[in-house]
Amino acid sequence: MYEQNLQMYIIVHFLVTSVFLTALGSQNRTVHFVTEFILLGFHGQRKMQSFFFSLILVLYLLTLLGNGAIVYAVKWDRRLHTPMYILLGNFAFLEIWYASSTVPNMLVNILSETKTISFSGCFLQFYFFFSLGTTECFFLSVMAYDRYLAICRPLHYPSIMSRKFCVTLICMCWVSGFLCYPVPIILISQLPFCGPNIIDHFVCDPGPLFALACVSAPSTELICYTFNSVIIFGPFLSILGSYTMVLRVVLRVPSGAGRTKAFSTCGSHLMVVSLFYGTLMVMYVSPTSGNPAGMQKIVTLVYSAGTPFLNPLIYSLRNKDMKNALKKALGITTS
């Protein structure tokens, strides 16, 4: 399954890269004076930049290690070949790519003297970062739906959440996530950029790009922010609905032990949802949020690098089956 997802990602990456490089390259020649942007990133004294480089590099390596271990454990431990863990394994696989869409370029940017990124490269990063983030929103919604079925409809769960249906949901998350963002990116890329070209951020984000456009585009801004709000709130409301039904059922369980067990199966997912959506809404829901550049960088760093790093810890530390599978995968024996 993970090989299929990897092949799907590579195919989509190749096709979209070819189309975007062709389209954006043509725009560079005919519309824009700006051919590259300067990502200031974490500017400041060299010691501070070295600190950020070391911190982000360690976070990234641990993210790859932690999420890779979950993917490996779910793939090779047959006890985890259930919908809940298949979704978790694919979510960990997604987190690897999500972090990789920005962090390597972030690290190169810190070491770079020029800190430049090409016009096409900027919008390609924009596309993959936001498409993978959208895919994560969909995955979190599907994982909440899986918990709703397991707790609220346990007798029908095996027939509804079959392996085939689970794989179908996973494919829909990936495909839908990558089909959502071409429209906003095309709208923004068609704006005239005639200078300056300095982005006080470490990723190509819509807010700074709108600020660099030579003309104001309130209609495009409204469309993009509305689009972001729909993508964020749609899955979020679905998650909220699933857990509202779960809460109603759990509160009717007569025994305290039963309620504790039911809540424990949802606790990890709720922590991840709170962390991811909390930072996401601060950045992209309100077009008039007016967050200073420093705050934007910190919030973006949390959900682009911090959340993928914390997710393996949250899921493995709170899940006995996952801890046992990871120990087995790492060759750790328990007495």
Automatic annotation (TrEMBL):
Subcellular localization is given as: Cell membrane
- Keywords associated with the record: Cell membrane, Disulfide bond, G-protein coupled receptor, Glycoprotein, Membrane, Olfaction, Receptor, Sensory transduction, Transducer, Transmembrane, Transmembrane helix
Q: Which residues cross the membrane?
A: 49-73, 85-103, 123-145, 165-187, 230-251, 263-286, 298-317
Instruction: Give GO terms: molecular function aspect only.
Output: G protein-coupled receptor activity; olfactory receptor activity
What Pfam families does the entry give? Answer: 7tm_4 (PF13853)
Keyword Disulfide bond applies: yes
Task: Write out the GO cellular component annotations.
Answer: plasma membrane
Residue intervals of the G-protein coupled receptors family 1 profile domain: 66-315
How would you describe this protein's topology in the membrane?
Multi-pass membrane protein
Q: What family is this protein classified in?
A: Belongs to the G-protein coupled receptor 1 family.
What's the protein name? Answer: Olfactory receptor
